[in-house]
Specification:
eight-stranded mixed beta sheet, 2 domains, 20% strand, six-stranded mixed beta sheet
Length: 347
């Protein structure tokens, strides 16, 4: 197992980098980005610092890597936050200077396509933080969700344990980020049930690994930031899917490939994020959304029954693409207590 360290945390008043290692969407959609920057300053007391590619679309992978190097190497920067995800951060990884990053460990916050960089930092022995994108969580319409804000604040500033809580409502409807009216009202929230469990007869504590399932599949195909399977033995697997709404068949096939590789069987516990069931382009009905969630859950269960039948699984943990989102330490400790139906993370 790779030896992992928690980087020192920022303090209010510190300068933090805001980067776009995947997509420069802040340049196309400035409203949620500017709102997120304002909340970083006003609500969290931090000083956001942008870099040359933060608001630029179509820049090279080498240029985005250079921004990462500059942010990590700058001794006045105490944390690095992604603006949003994308779909090609995989191409940035070959341009990264591993020794520079290893010598300057800092908390990195991001999810979705940022699974690439989180896994890369994991390989260097640096705990990252899955969640907390500037445009999405900080730039949420109306106000930051209180569950998200509490988790982000704890992950940013407070070392130690943090107990996750189940929610009774969640958001799954994307709205137009180019329309100022979007940000004048709170997002629509729907009633939901809490977590559900499989094999909840034990307590597992281990280092986390995983992230967005679609991105993990790309990483596995390209053999980027992936260690031999037994490196992850005893860990807690994190899995969540995106607004691209992969079919149940695709979810099963990706997990089947991970099973064939010997990955699934390494994890005595897995946490599965609440499935996103709609997008800005796909407006599913309540019935279609419920069916999609059930089909995805069945696909996950089918793969684990075939490759890791003893793994404890908790479904509908709110760390993915739905709202609210809790931050998960990536490479940090996660305690999954089946008998108590409790999940505790260490920030």
């Amino acid at each position: 197992m790779v030896e992992l360290i928690y980087p020192d945390k920022p303090r209010p008043g510190d300068r933090v980098a805001v980067l776009s290692p995947s997509s420069g969407l802040p340049g196309l959609l400035p409203l949620p980005f500017e709102l997120g920057l304002r909340r970083l300053t006003e609500d969290f007391g931090l000083v956001p610092v942008e870099y040359p590619t933060t608001r630029k679309m179509g820049v090279s992978a080498a240029a985005r890597a250079a921004d990462l190097h500059a942010a990590f190497a700058d001794p006045t920067i105490t944390a690095v936050l992604s603006s949003i995800g994308g779909d090609d951060q995989l191409t940035v990884l070959p341009h990264l200077d591993a020794e520079l990053l290893r010598a300057n460990p800092k908390p990195f916050f991001g999810f979705s396509d940022n699974t690439n960089l989180l896994a890369y930092l994991w390989n260097l022995g640096i705990v990252g933080f899955h969640g907390g994108a500037v445009m999405v969580q900080f730039g949420r319409a109306g106000a930051m969700h209180p569950v998200t804000a509490e988790s982000v604040h704890a992950a940013l500033f407070t070392p130690g344990e943090f107990a996750l809580t189940e929610v009774t409502s969640y958001g799954d409807t994307d709205r137009d980020w180019s329309d100022p009216a979007t940000f004048a009202v709170e997002p629509v929230m729907d009633a939901c049930e809490g977590w559900s469990w499989r094999n909840a007869d034990r307590v597992v504590e281990g280092r986390s690994w995983g992230g967005n399932l679609e991105v993990l599949s790309w990483m596995l195909m390209a053999d980027r930031a992936i260690q031999p399977s037994d490196t992850y033995a005893g860990g807690v697997l994190l899995l969540e899917t995106s607004e691209e709404l992969p079919s149940a068949d695709e979810v099963y096939r990706i997990l089947r490939s991970m099973g064939e590789r010997g990955l699934l069987g390494q994890f005595p516990a897995a946490l599965v994020g609440r499935a996103k069931t709609s997008s800005i382009d796909v407006r599913n009905s309540p019935g279609q959304r419920a069916a999609y969630r059930e089909d995805q859950r069945d696909a996950v269960l089918r793969a684990f029954e075939e490759y890791a039948p003893d793994t404890m699984i908790t479904f509908d943990v709110d760390f993915g693409h739905t709202d609210p989102q809790v931050v998960m330490p990536y490479g940090g400790f996660v305690r999954v207590d089946g008998p108590a139906r409790a999940i505790t993370v260490t920030y």
